[in-house]
Structures are given as C-alpha cells and as structure tokens.
Amino acid sequence: MRDTDSMYLYYRTDLWAEEAFWFIRNLTCSTTLLSTEEDCEKLVSIPKSEMNFYVAEPTREGKLYAVLPDGLLTNRLEPRDAVLVLDPYPKANLGHLLVVFFIDYGWSESKCHENNGKYLEDNSCISLAVRKHCLPRTMKSIWGVKLPNKYRYKECEINFFPHVHLIGESPSRKSQRLECRDDFEGFAPCPTFRPKHLSEKL
Questions:
Q1: What distance in Å separates the CA atoms of residue 84 and residue 99, rounded to the nearest whole number?
Q2: Which domain of life is it from (predicted)?
C-alpha cells in the first residue's frame, strides 16, 4: 500500500470513529431502540476516553461478513466494506452492551438513507447494526429520528463482539478481522487482558 493510500485510510477510519461516537452522544433515550431508557441514559453520559474502539477496515482481499455467536447480526448476511464496534464498558465482563456499525461504499446518498444510514463526506455510508427483526423495513433513517416505543426492546441489544471475516472464509479465530485500535484521538487504551485480535468463541 502506498503511503498516500494509508494516510487516506487513516483519515477515513478516524471519520467513522467520530461519527460513531457522536451517534451515541446524541441518542434520544426516550425513543431509542438500542437499549432501555435507563441504560441509554448511562450510555450517553460515558466520555469517549472510557470507550474502546474496534474496527475491521476495508481490504483489497474483498468485502466482509459480520456474524454474532448466536447467529446472524441482521435479517440476511450482507457483505460490508468495514465494521465498527464501540465498547462503552471495556472493564465489564463479556455480555454487556456494544454498539456496532456498518460501513458501505458505492451507495448513493438516497440508498444510504433508505438503509437507515448517514452519508459521509468520504462517500461512505455509516449505519447502525441492530439484531434481526428489531428494525422494521419501513422505518425511516434512525439518525436523529424518534422511534415508537414498541420498537424499544432489550432484546435488540448486541452483547457480544461480532466475528468479522472475509467472504469465502469460515469464522475462526484466525479469520477474525475486528481489532481494537487506540491510535485515534480520545478513545481509551486497548485492553491488555486479551489479544487485539478478538478470540471470543462463536
């Protein structure tokens, strides 16, 4: 990879990290589907300096799949260009709330909005990942929109890191592309009690 390519990649990932954090900071807790209202109010008060940032960045090897230990993350398995995870409670035991985002390139701004995403200045689309069946297809963009109370389910929470792997690879410890990054301004240092390349069992 040329130096100019790596610099562009860094800028792009930095942009995504900021957008993901500000999505959390600007949640409307009375209507969010991410968690209960009480848990949401705790979430939005957590400073960036206490959160860990994880990313599976784009690769020339191909697009990425993201799956959870208990099944598909979304209604259908779709390839993505990148996957982000913000861990607001890095010192807690596994099984706590995580906030997951998808990054897609090659989408028009209208397609991004149709898929409940936000179109960014680098022509990527960032969208919140929610468990399958939690977000109705007819729902408009969740970036700033209020959701009816009936869509606010504790069951919508993502509590385990997704396994992110290349299309054509089987999910395994070696194929996990998601890694903690602490080289972006403001986020907490990566944990030292487990490898940067996550090793949770599927």
A1: 8
A2: Eukaryota
**Residue length of the chain:** 202
Determine if residue 106 is left, alpha or beta; phi over 0 gives left, psi from -120 to 50 gives alpha, anything else beta: left
Where do the domains of the chain lie? Answer: 4-187
**Which residues have CB under 8 Å from 138's CB, separation 6+?**
none
The letter for the amino acid at 38 is: E
Which of 84, 49, 66, 94 lies closest to 193 in space, CA to CA?
A: 94
Please state the pTM of the whole predicted model. Answer: 0.82
Between the alpha carbon of residue 97 and those of residues 13, 35, 40, 174, the distances in Å are 22, 8, 10, 25
What the block records as the tokens of 195 is 């490898």
Average pLDDT over residues 169-177: 77
- pLDDT tens, residue by residue, 60-69: 888 999 988 8
| 82 in Cβ contact with 60 (< 8 Å) | no
